[in-house]
Specification:
alpha+beta; four-stranded mixed sheet
């Protein structure tokens, strides 16, 4: 279990930093995510100093999440960049899991559509672990955004292209350590 946690922490660091520091994508043909609302809200490039300092920490366990804050526009941009960074990192032929979309359906509902071309006995485990990882990362950023009302969590649903639900939760997913 320690190895899985260690892999998750390394993945989380790379994904958060990649999503927050990457260039804005100009090709929206591979995105399904709605464009961020055109408001006067700052972009991820304009994160406040405290948020930026926390997200730049090498070890996610060292992040003080109380110091992280995103506006609604920054959160939507984060999801877009996150999706782009996942697609950019999945260009090698060994990756069998493709993220087709990350879409904010409402202010309290996010849908992730994946495709796993792996037909081995590990495909279901891969889908489940990926769903858990995506839920954890996106949920942590959501509760630090202006979307979170302090009470109600976002519902995050991960499903495959055939519509089969891999995971759906309105709270952090707990892994059974047995």
């Amino acid at each position: 279990m320690f190895k899985i946690k260690q892999i998750f922490i390394m993945s989380l660091t790379g994904i958060i930093l990649g999503a927050c520091s990457g260039e804005n994508a100009t090709d929206s043909s591979d995105h399904v995510l709605d464009e961020p609302e055109q408001t006067s809200e700052a972009s991820l490039d304009g994160l406040d100093a405290a948020t930026k300092a926390e997200l730049e920490k090498e070890n996610p366990e060292d992040i003080n999440w109380e110091n992280v804050h995103l506006t609604k526009g920054q959160f939507k941009e984060y999801i877009e960049r996150f999706h782009t960074s996942l697609n950019d990192s999945s260009t090698d032929e060994e990756n069998t899991l493709i993220v087709h979309s990350i879409k904010m359906l409402t202010d309290t509902e996010i849908e992730i559509i994946i495709e796993n071309t792996d037909q081995s006995e590990f495909a279901e485990f891969t889908n489940s672990f990926f769903g858990w990882t995506m839920d954890t990362i996106i949920r942590q950023m959501y509760i630090r955004s202006d979307f979170f009302d302090g009470v109600n969590q976002v519902t995050i649903r991960t499903q495959d292209q055939q519509g089969e639900i891999v995971s759906e939760s309105n709270d952090f997913i707990e892994l059974d350590e047995n």
